[in-house]
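Re: folding output
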Amino acid sequence: MAEAAIAEAAASAPGARIDAGLVVAPHGTPAPALPPGVRFLTAAHPLPDAHSVAAAQAARALLAGAGAGDLVLALLSGGGSALLAEPVPPLTLDDLARTTRALQSAGADITLLNRVRRRIDLVKGGRLVTLAAPARVLCLAVSDVPGDDPAMIASGPFTPGADAPAGLVEEVERLGAALPPAVLTVLRPDAAHAPAGGDAGEPPSRALAGADPGEPQAAAVRYQVVASNPVALDAAAAAARSLGYDVASGSFPLEGEAADCGRAVAAAARGAAPGAALLFGGETTVRVRGRGRGGRNQELALAAAIDLAGTSNLVVGAAGTDGVDGSSPAAGGIVDGATAARIAAAGIDPQAALADNDSHTALAAAGAQLLTGATGTNVMDVVVVLRARADG
């Protein structure tokens, strides 16, 4: 989601000389200041569209022209998996979109989602390394994944790896995600087809897995994470200290079901010392069972609000760093001990709203949404607990 900003920064760096390039950003992103020869395209997020395919094809064509003396500067950030997408034949764009939607609705974490994407997409799983050869590749990445795994950021277009297919279909089925039959066929270890444009004699497993990490072109890739969730937490900690709070890291990462994390955050808030600020980072998931509107941060905030009902001097804020949470325009929510009562006073049962995945409606009724607008980047989520001092 930070593609335009980091591309503009790279292009304006002292001594920078960019002969040709491509920048892909979400629809609605203002065109950045770019040098001649650098194309600017937009595509859809979080589900890919025809523009995503066009962007992927443009990227592949650009890299195919790279030579031995060239340096490919790849600037990656969260959201790249949707913005740059081209299905492995015989799959279709609809197959990719349905797969993403089904996994997200079933509560798949980003690691499983991107492991699947790496198998079914022509520009993921390190496949762009092979196209860029014999040029050198420098990847600078803004991480939106736990552990900052290069193979997972934007599904690792320049990160080859042995993506073992064994057990992948079983993981998806245990989750209850209804993937298109054609996708399940491709995900199976014995999938017997190769991407279009590849060597017809290439073994299917090699075609699906991407470049071998032992190949010379893979060794020519340098990778550096330039921003991540810990960086965001450090900035939040500095802001909290400047306001006089005693800062401590949360005792658990944000992962798993959002509502469960919200309850755990509420419990931690109740145990916080006066004047404390607790910071949590990560990314939760939501298993969609209802028909409401919301997102993982609003769902976490609503669950916390229910458990904090009646408390005083405590506030919990949960936000996606990209400024967009799920299917709503909010980044998340800010709740306290009176939020649940305000929701009820508006005629909404907080527990029923949570069960219906309708956190957006509930928090909006209480004036508890956090509305920032799109921030242009994504380094996962941040949750902040503030406890007022006894004399405050």
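--- second protein (sequence, then structure) ---
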Amino acid sequence: MNPYQNLPDSAFWKLAVANKSMFDIDNIWNPKSIILPKHNVVTFGSCFAQHIGNALIERDFAWMSTELPPPGLSKENCKKFNYNVFSCRTGNIYTASLLKQWVEWALNATPVPTEYWEQDSRFYDPFRPGIEPNGFASVEEMQSSREKTIKCFNKAITEADYFVFTLGLTESWFNKQHG
């Protein structure tokens, strides 16, 4: 006896797909739920999540953006300043550990670090280094922007019907001092 002997043909690639005409392939995937255009969907993660968000918009689905650009910002500058790239301005979230960090901040489960990077009298958020391509004018401006994004992330995770997260192919780093 083996764990596979009682599975249906749809559980096996050769029987369900390889030995069939493409017109005869069916019943290989039965979703537990179906995303409808009316469902609020948020997308975060790697660049692939951006493509999913764009595909939802193109198909008139309710892709949620919780951190809206300032009125009058051009489409080009929206992209440059990371508005409507993901459902809020988190930047790429490549790993499960970074996603966990954002969730903990959004739910006030852990304190938000005060860490920042400085270069040429400009300030950068180490958790979203590409959000402001020219950096922030001050640490306070950077921290205010981070706090706004955390509030918008909270709205995304508490109001969305579906949360799409795509992993990236990158390493994960941990700060020894802050865990």
